[in-house]
Amino acid sequence: MSDTLFAKIIRREIPADIVYEDDDILAFRDIAPKAPLHVLFIPKKPIRNLDAAVADDGELLGRLVLAAAAYARQEGFAEQGYRCVFNTNADGGQTVFHLHLHLLAGRSLHWPPG
Ligand code: 5GP
Fold it and tell me: 5 with 14: CB under 8 angstroms?
């Protein structure tokens, strides 16, 4: 996989507002937030997107989702609600090809998305 913007954020070559980090996961605020809370959770492992994930990535992806849920709860959004999204390839709206979970909260989110 070629180097992406998010790989540069992991290596601290590009600044980001990091809100969570562990050995395998990094979370930082989206530069163009679509909701009052908009955080991207990424694996440090360079997986292109969900379509490129394999069975061995299952535990990592489970921890990624749970890290987002824990952060939403910590920030006080668990009860009012939030949305987690993995945009995948062109029709999914993916623009950065390093797997990421969008955590959106703080306003009523429409369904279906446009
Ligand atoms: P995608 O469209 O691939 O699902 O989401 C990529 C997200 O990355 C977009 O919401 C976009 O605003 C965000 N993004 C793009 N460049 C940067 C950046 O340099 N820093 C941060 N923090 N977010 C970025």
Answer: yes
Give the domain range for residue 101.
5-105
Cβ(68)–Cβ(27) below 8 Å: yes
Domain count, the chain: 1
Please tell me the distance between residue 110's alpha carbon and the centre of ligand 1 in angstroms.
Answer: 20
* CA of 31 relative to ligand 1 center, distance in Å: 6
102 is catalytic: no
Q: Is 0.85 surpassed by the pTM of this model?
A: yes
Task: Read off the CATH number of the domain in which 77 is found.
Answer: 3.30.428.10
Indicate which atom in ligand 1 lies nearest the CA of residue 97. 3
Domain annotation covers residue 114:
no
Average pLDDT, the chain: 97
Best residue among 10, 40, 89, 103 to mutate for probing ligand 1's pocket (most ligand atoms within 8 Å of CB) is 40
Report yes or no on 112 lying in a domain. Answer: no
